[in-house]
Design brief:
- The chain has helices at 17-28, 40-50, 64-78, 101-122, 148-168, 195-206, 217-228, and strands spanning 8-11, 32-37, 55-58, 81-86, 126-135, 174-180, 239-242.
- It is α/β, with parallel strands linked by helices and 249 residues long.
- The protein has a single domain, classed as 3-Layer(aba) Sandwich (Rossmann fold), CATH 3.40.50.
- It has a 7-stranded parallel β-sheet, sandwiched between helices.
- Helix 5 links the parallel strand 5 and strand 6 (174-180).
- The termini are far apart.
Length: 249
């Protein structure tokens, strides 16, 4: 039997990278899947590539009203939700003194505020023994220069995994977190930096990883499948670090 047979799942930020690969793996494991994205073109492309049974919903991860609408739309499609993978987010990187209040609000909004209110809006729709998986980051643990805003947003999300795990267990909902290290995803191309600067930054990051490579999105997706499945049914408030040894060696 497939590991997610009969389960319904929502993956935010499911058009590229980790979200897309997780959607693909969930489908392989028998789940019914809904994905979100902000760019209509990418959303349509992802739906076509993943297959016609995927539900594609446009939503801005940092817009609280959009999270409430998303919860309503998911409930209309599935009735109940068994798995939520909170993956959508953005990364703003730069010197500490370069960020504005607008930057702060944008970063925290997409990575922490939006997810907070999405989970809140979805509470009436979770099925029995549901699983929430939050995609945090190894940056929540290490003092990487130029990542103050991003790291703070992910540290907040990681804390949320712990507090909600205690608060929602009475509803039959398990909350756990994945903390990836550097992964080969389109996020690096969205920083608005020249190609040579991005390449140099990537090389510097790669040299900090004991395995001397970036992780692949499917390596995170496989970990999410584990948390979404009954194989992790005795895990609550746990964090699975998948970083090639970056934070530990």
């Amino acid at each position: 039997m497939k590991r997610l047979e009969g389960k319904t799942a929502l993956i935010t930020g499911g058009t590229t990278g980790i979200g897309y690969e997780t959607a693909r793996r969930f489908l392989e494991e028998g789940a019914k899947v809904a994905i979100t994205g902000l760019d209509a073109g990418r959303l349509a492309d992802a739906k076509k590539s993943l297959g016609g049974n995927v539900v594609a919903l446009r939503a801005d991860a940092g817009d609280v009203a959009a999270q409430k609408k998303l919860a309503t739309d998911v409930a209309a499609e599935f009735g109940k939700l068994d798995v939520l993978f909170v993956n959508a987010g953005i990364g703003l990187f730069g010197p500490f003194d370069s960020f504005s209040e607008a930057d702060f609000d944008r970063q925290i909004g997409a990575n922490l505020k939006g997810p907070y209110f999405l989970i809140q809006a979805l509470l009436p729709h979770f099925g029995a023994e549901a699983s929430i998986v939050l995609n945090t980051s190894i940056n929540a643990h290490i003092g990487m220069p130029n990542s103050s805003l991003y790291a703070a947003s992910k540290a907040g999300l990681l804390s949320l995994a712990r507090t909600l795990s205690g608060e929602l267990v009475g509803r039959g909902i398990r909350v756990n977190a994945i903390s990836p290290g550097p992964i080969s995803t389109p996020i690096y191309g969205k920083l608005g930096l020249p190609a040579d600067v991005v390449a140099g930054m990537a090389e510097g990051i790669r040299n900090q990883v004991p395995l001397k490579r970036f992780g692949q999105p499917v390596e995170i997706a496989d970990a999410v499948v584990f948390f979404a499945s009954n194989e992790s049914r005795f895990m609550l408030g746990a964090e699975l670090i998948v970083d090639g040894g970056m934070a530990t060696l």
